[in-house]
Specification:
Structural class: alpha/beta
Distance between the termini: 31 Å
Number of strands: 12
CATH topology of the largest domain: Spore Coat Polysaccharide Biosynthesis Protein SpsA, Chain A
Mean pLDDT: 93
Largest sheet: 8 strands, mixed
CATH class of the largest domain: Alpha Beta
Radius of gyration: 21 Å
Strand order of the largest sheet: 3-2-1-4-7-6-8-5
Number of helices: 13
Length: 361
Amino acid sequence: MISYLIPTRHRPDRLAATLTALARLDPDPADPAAEVIVVDDASETPVTTPTRLANGWAVRVVRCETQCGAAARNAGVEAARGAWIFMLDDDSWPLDTAANGIAATAGNDVAAIGGQILLPGGHHEHGGLPEVFVGCGVLLRRDVFLDLGGYDDTFHYYAEEYDYCARLIRAGWRVRHDWRLQVRHEKVAAGRRLAVILRRLVRNNGWVAQRYAPEKHHQPALEEIVERYARIAAREGVAFGYQRGLDDLMETIDEQPRVPLTEEQWQRFTGATAVEEHLAATPELAGHAVAIVDEGKHANVIRRVLLERGGCMLVGEDDADRLVIGTLSPGPMLDAWERHHRAGVDAWMGWRPDHAGVLAG
């Protein structure tokens, strides 16, 4: 059974539109008891919904009396009846009911299955890594989520998925991505203030590095986060938000528990393992002049693995005879691959999520 979980706050019209989109889905005969859980994160006007959608799915509302941010989802998971939770936002919904079949065939060690999250402009959602999902379109094992304590409420919003995935990996579970799990994300702009977002990204990602980076990676990981968001702040003109986030991080970093991952777990968490496994399965880069293009999240990991394991030399794009897409974030990686593919250029992806060929055809 799948429980579709939607947190919301102060956006009744957006929630209504998402419920309408869910109601248009044909129920999966193999999952007749699917349900929708709406979590009202302390909206000033309490959320009301129909008790049943047009397709027969029951709808329940769980209300938080104080705002919890991302951790409001924890209350919804506790109330859910499904063995698997389909985490959504109030502006995201699945395009079909493939989730039940995908969950039914998940490996026994898989606790999270990230989806292909499509934006209105035809591009994909940013964020995530080979073993880090994006929270507005992911299947999660309910019992594991509860056993690990769900999302950390001190994060409020942003990077809570990274914290949770690090705990998943540390506990012996795996995260995978399946492109058959397709989600539309309208990504409504209301309530999204870039300075606030950047402030939380600096602090929260710093917390993740402080908590989980093994000793030899600890300081480099913190420095990479500080430098990355400084560049973003300069580009977007929100230096004050970045500085406030950096101040928050410095004030709270010593309060974070040090529970480092093992070296093997850290390589999985950062995506290096996925690159190495994909490289071993497709060794055609060896001996070639390679350029890294479309650089994004953790391009430094791809660069390091290519130099250490790839048997190739890195050059500028004009001198290269092979191109490597330089991001480990699933959405941007697929966008870059499709762009090069349309242009007739063969570009290698640093990792290949399950069923990547669904869209490639």
